Amino acid sequence: MKIGVIAANGKSGKLITEEAVNRNLDVTAIVRNENKTIAKQSIIKDIFELTTEDLTQFDVVIDAFGEFREDKLHLHQDTIQHLSDILSNTNTRLIVVGGAGSLYVDEQLETQLYNTPDFPDAYKPLSTAQGKALDDLRKRDDVRWTFVSPAAEFIADGKRSGDYILAGEKLTLNSKGESKISYADFAIALIDEATEGNHVQERISVVSK
């Protein structure tokens, strides 16, 4: 399997790339500048310069792009639109690293986490932007996309346990009543989905056991 990881130099992207390489997959880091990952192959391009030809060599493209500056949050939608357009009507899967804020907290799937009273104001703009990007993906029946949301507490330096719970649109708690996952375990779940999963045109979520 050939996998391309966009934004492979980022915190999440690096661990996803490492997980894929350690499973002996054919991995290419797609980065704007110097490749700082363990992947031996790279494409050095800005995300908006990527073409259909660049990406259709891969079975799966993992989009680990992230932007946290408030005046740049529109890039979540802009990058998704660009990637969707160049992968339109191709066989290449697009797996997007999403956020937890757009997960639903009710059985009716009407109330999203970022609209609940206790959701931190500081994270609401980012979560809203990621939610809009997911809304845009839902409109695309011409792209083989999967949007993967981490748990509410996404721990950059957390341990790699190797265990996780695969869930869907609803915020899911583990046996301890927690919604948390490490970046390392999230990377495992993402590569599992890339190699074994088939949640095409779906949003899934993962939480630690």
Automatic annotation (TrEMBL):
SUPFAM superfamilies: NAD(P)-binding Rossmann-fold domains (SSF51735). Residues 8-193 form the NAD(P)-binding domain. This is NAD(P)-dependent oxidoreductase. It comes from Mammaliicoccus fleurettii. Pfam families: NAD_binding_10 (PF13460). InterPro entries: NAD(P)-bd_dom (IPR016040), NAD(P)-bd_dom_sf (IPR036291), Polyketide_Oxido-like (IPR051606).
